[in-house]
Target: TRAV43-1*01
Amino acid sequence: MKRKWGILLGLLCIQICWVRGVKVEQSPSVLSLQEGANSTLWCNFSDIVSSVQWFQQNPEGSLISLVFIASGTKQNEKLSSTVNSKERYSTLHITASQLEDAATYLCAAE
Ligand SMILES: *[C@@H]1O[C@H](CO)[C@@H](O)[C@H](O)[C@H]1NC(C)=O
Ligand SMILES: *[C@@H]1O[C@H](CO)[C@@H](O)[C@H](O)[C@H]1NC(C)=O
Model:
């Protein structure tokens, strides 16, 4: 029997925040998923960025660096991250979300 977990992925910068003068828009602001679903988080930037770092903040509050990416795509078993500096966005794709993925995700750019 498949348990239905509601997985909440919140994003810290819910609307718009500024990182070193670059305006960053994260979307979606809050996402509710079923166990096993894939999900993609976006960060859109107002300016060209040279690198992006994605973090996960777990419920205890600690910040974990997930990936640092300067261009192209980086992938591990579960996460795939892309940066498109020309179109000024980065995505974090989470494959087969599980309860332990419930967290706040944020991106930082420079
Ligand atoms: C972010 O950029 C992507 C690709 O250009 C676009 O499809 C998406 O709508 C943008 N999201 C926001 C919130 O502006
Ligand atoms: C989730 O993503 C993985 C890898 O990108 C893909 O193989 C799989 O078909 C996707 N599953 C769904 C439900 O979209």
